[in-house]
Design a protein that fits this description.
The chain has 880 residues and is of the alpha+beta class. The protein has 25 helices and 29 strands. The strands form 7 sheets. It has a 5-stranded antiparallel beta sheet with strand order 2-1-5-4-3, with helices on both faces. The chain has a 5-stranded antiparallel beta sheet with strand order 7-6-10-9-8. Strands 12-11-15-14-13 form a 5-stranded antiparallel beta sheet, sandwiched between helices. It is elongated.
Length: 880
């Protein structure tokens, strides 16, 4: 307004002066004044507006300056308050006695001095990942009652400021908790208590993770400087907590050390174990507890005047060296022998460690009397040596049957070493020959604490099956629980084989007795048939009739041959015995079989040089080799190698062969027949020597081949062994005694040409009516007169009536009432020179000891079934 008034005055005055001076027009002067006035008014308005704007700007600047000054003042006050909190925290660190007190002081200071609404301390549980509040302070009662926080990043309660600060080990600030999405799980609590911003500072002490969480009522309360001060506060807190922890640990250590010293002193004085304190520099005993005084036997005062060398049997140099090792820590355990006050020497175990008492370095030594343990150890060592040297296998297993120890005999028996079986069970020996029920019964027995013993078949490391007798004894603890099992094993394969051979021998003997009885009856049946054939041929002379009779005769002879094979197996027979050279016999058999066996079988000889001669029946031994060769052929259907061999063999003592025959000591010829065929299975081996046992199809074999071989070998006083491997072949070994220069006499009657009886009377004694009838008919046709008797009693009655009327006696040995042997003896007692022809259905009866009586009486034996020619030949020999 001042500018406008001055300017108007100037313009109006200046225009009027110009008008007056120059006498201008009045209109022009009026326009000039109006124009000037308008200009002044416009410029005045502009200046007024600029002045008002400047005034407003200046006012705003002043207000902003005042606000900044206020904020700075408030910030400085907060910083000052935080510094005050830091000072208080440092004081609390020095004065606080425990963790809770220190945290409580700092939280209270933050609330009361720094203007914070709420402060709380928490520690993370590493097992559950939960954050557990510990100490709090502020105007928010009940805030932590339902508060859930975690450090698990997969949990929504682990994504808040506190969880992140602990997990990420950094300060996390939330400027406005109402808009911060990480605070969403706690938004209701925050709004309820009026919190707007927070700062969470991590702390870590002794491996524990925690945080200080501070809440303010204003947003953006925690600027960088305040945040930095909060970090410094956390560092001070960590330092304070470490000081408290160290102080507590030192206090605990001091307490434990004091208690330990008191306890060790009490132990030293009251322990029943002998203890010594020794000065290692001079080796003198500095202290001894009462147990040491009692052990060594000297009074304590006298014991403390002694050195270690006085009680140790080692030299002083050795004692000094051992103490040096104990002081340096090179060794702590020593075994010595100490001398006691009464002169006794005791084995001791000494544990020595260096200790420092005051300003002295000593050795703390504990002495254990191990004399008894040494004696027990020596005894156990002796027992272990005995167990190792025991011929029976021994196995020690734990309560679950796992093997812990075996001796050398077990390794020899099974082929398994301790390294092979340690930690394994006895099932590694299972052969599969015993079923699950067998092992269930075994385990039920021993698991009840009872001893089990029995025989079983196990399998060796190489797969071989063997028999063993095993005894398992449980080892019990004092409480009655089973802690170990001890098994004692004995290989009884040889014994089982012997039992098998004896059983086979007994079975074969029984079969032989049965076969002998059957053969006797069959021979009595066949005898009249054969004799009747000769009579029928005299009556029926037509060629067709003769052919039919010859067919019947051959059938009867075939039946007699089968019976002879049965009896050969049953008891053996005597044929024509002579001195034989085995190589000739074997070559003859080889030549025979080469013509009959398939060309795919190669027959080779394996003969030892200078083979000894044997005494035997060439026909029977020929049959033995042929039967074995035929069996070998059957075992090699696709060809192979058949070996006939012989060698010397000397037996130092009696031996039971696999066939059950026992051969005495002496020199033998070993005849062996070996093939490369399929071998013999164990099941077949059980019955291979039994008569009528065959593996061939029905109608292809009689099963008498090997049983006949056995009978012939038995008859020659020999033995038979068999060895076989499935898929590789079989070998039969026949042991025959070598010749000694003496031959057995021939006791069989030879057939001779028929001759006329000339009315001579023959006493015929036989309990078989057909034999009696046919024999009588044959005698009548050849001019003899016969008197028949069906048993021994009737025969003696006939003989007693007129002993001199009889020219000879044909006497059956086996009869009811009175046997043929007794009848013969009683007849000889009356007429010693009366010829007696004994008949029998038993081919081997002349080998039973009665043969000596027959030779002394000069009689003949006529075996059934015999022909008419055999009968007349026998009569011709005795009646010459």
């Amino acid at each position: 307004m001042k500018y406008a008034a001055v300017a108007l005055v100037w313009i109006v005055g200046s225009d009027l002066v110009v008008f007056w001076l120059y006498d201008g027009g009045r209109v022009e002067a009026g326009w000039n004044i109006a124009k000037g006035t308008f200009f002044v008014m416009v410029t005045a308005a502009i200046l007024y507006g600029l002045a008002r704007r400047m005034q407003t700007r200046i006012r705003r600047v002043e207000e902003a300056r005042r606000d900044e000054l206020l904020k700075t003042t408030q910030h400085m006050e907060r910083v000052r308050d935080l510094y005050a909190v830091l000072v208080r925290a440092n004081k609390a660190t020095l004065s606080a006695t425990d963790e809770a007190t220190l945290c409580g002081e700092i939280s209270t200071a933050l609330v009361s001095l720094a203007g914070l609404r709420f402060v709380w301390f928490a520690w993370a549980d590493e097992a559950t990942l939960r954050v557990n509040p510990d100490v709090w302070s502020g105007d928010a009662p009940g805030y932590l009652d339902n508060f859930v926080c975690s450090i698990d990043p997969a949990d929504e309660h682990g994504c808040g400021p506190t969880g992140r600060a602990i997990r990420e080990a950094r300060i996390v600030v939330s400027g406005d908790m109402l808009t911060d999405h990480s605070v969403l799980p706690w938004r209701a609590l925050v709004e309820k208590y009026g919190f707007r911003s927070c700062a969470c500072v991590p702390i870590r002490v002794s491996g524990r993770r925690g945080s200080i969480s501070a809440y303010a009522g204003q947003p953006n309360f925690f600027d960088p400087e305040i945040t930095e001060l909060m970090g410094r506060l956390a560092a001070d807190l960590e330092h304070g907590l470490k000081l408290i922890a160290d102080r507590d640990e030192r206090a605990r250590l001091n307490t434990r050390l004091r208690e330990s010293e008191e306890r060790h002193r009490a132990l030293f004085e009251n322990d029943h174990v002998a203890m010594l304190l020794v000065d290692p520099t001079v080796g003198r005993i500095c202290d001894a507890n009462p147990a040491a005084v009692r052990f060594y036997g000297w009074p304590k005062g006298e014991l403390l005047r002694k050195s270690i060398s006085d009680i140790n049997l080692l030299s002083k140099a050795e004692v000094a060296e051992n103490m040096h090792r104990a002081v340096s820590g090179e060794r702590r355990r020593f075994l010595f022998r100490h001398r006691l006050a009464d002169g006794n020497i005791r084995d001791v175990e000494v544990f020595s460690v260096p200790v420092r008492l005051g300003d002295r370095d000593l050795l703390y030594s504990i002495i254990h009397d191990i004399s008894e343990e040494c004696r027990v150890t020596a005894r156990l060592r002796l027992m272990q040596t005995a167990m190792e040297a025991a011929p029976s296998g021994m196995v020690i297993s734990d309560a679950l049957g796992r093997i812990e120890w075996v001796n050398a005999a077990f390794t020899t028996m099974t082929g398994y070493t301790l390294e092979n079986v340690a930690g394994r069970t006895h099932s590694i020996l299972k052969s599969g020959r015993q079923g699950p029920a067998f092992y269930d019964s075994l385990w039920n027995t021993i698991s009840r604490g009872r001893v089990w013993s029995g025989d079983l078949q196990n399998q060796r490391h190489d797969g071989a099956i063997y028999w063993e007798h095993m005894v398992i004894s449980p080892v019990m603890t004092p409480s009655g629980a089973i802690e170990h099992y001890v098994a004692i094993k004995q290989d009884i394969s040889s014994q089982k084989e012997m039992e098998l051979q004896v059983a086979r021998s007994q079975r074969l003997e029984s079969i032989g007795l049965l076969a002998g009885g059957i053969a006797h009856d069959l021979n009595n049946v066949l005898a009249p048939i054969l004799m009747a054939m000769d009579l029928f041929k005299l009556r029926y002379t037509e060629p067709a009739d003769q052919a039919r009779l010859e067919m019947v005769r051959k059938s009867a002879e075939r039946g007699a041959g089968i019976v002879r094979q049965v009896l050969t197996f049953a008891r053996g027979v005597d044929g024509e015995r002579m001195t034989l050279q085995p190589q000739h016999l074997i070559k003859e058999v080889r030549n025979l079989l080469q013509e009959t066996l398939p060309r795919s079988i190669d027959i080779v000889l394996d003969l030892e040089a200078d083979l000894p001669a044997i005494i035997g029946d060439p026909t029977q031994l020929h049959q033995v080799l042929v039967n074995l060769g035929v069996n070998a052929r059957d075992a090699m259907p696709h060809g192979g190698v058949l070996t006939f061999g012989a060698k010397r063999e000397c037996l130092a003592g009696p031996r039971v062969t696999q066939s059950g025959l026992t051969v005495p000591a002496g020199n033998y010829l070993n005849l062996f027949v070996r093939d490369t065929g399929s071998g013999i299975s164990p099941e077949v081996m059980e019955h291979i020597l039994e008569p009528f046992f065959t593996t061939k199809a029905r109608g292809e074999g009689t099963g008498l081949g090997l049983s006949t071989v056995l009978g012939i070998v038995r008859g020659h006083g020999g033995g038979l062994d068999i060895s076989t491997t499935l898929g590789k072949g079989t070998e039969f070994r026949v042991l025959l005694p070598v010749a000694t220069g003496q031959e057995n006499p021939r006791l069989f009657a030879d057939a001779a040409a028929p001759f006329e009886g000339a009315g001579r009377v023959i006493l015929v004694v036989d309990d078989e009516e057909p034999v009696l009838a046919v024999t009588g008919l044959a005698l009548e046709l050849n001019g003899f007169v016969h008197v028949d008797a069906m048993d021994g009693q009737i025969a003696l009655e006939h003989f007693d009536r007129d002993p001199d009327r009889f020219a000879a006696v044909i006497l059956d040995r086996v009869m009811p009432r009175i046997g043929g042997d007794e009848v013969a003896i009683r007849i000889k007692a009356i007429r010693p020179n009366l010829p007696i022809i004994l008949t029998s259905g038993m081919l081997s009866e002349d080998r039973t000891g009665a043969g000596d009586a027959y030779r002394k009486l000069g009689d003949l034996v006529l075996h059934k079934p015999f022909s008419q020619g055999d009968l007349l030949g026998a009569l011709s020999r005795v009646l010459k």
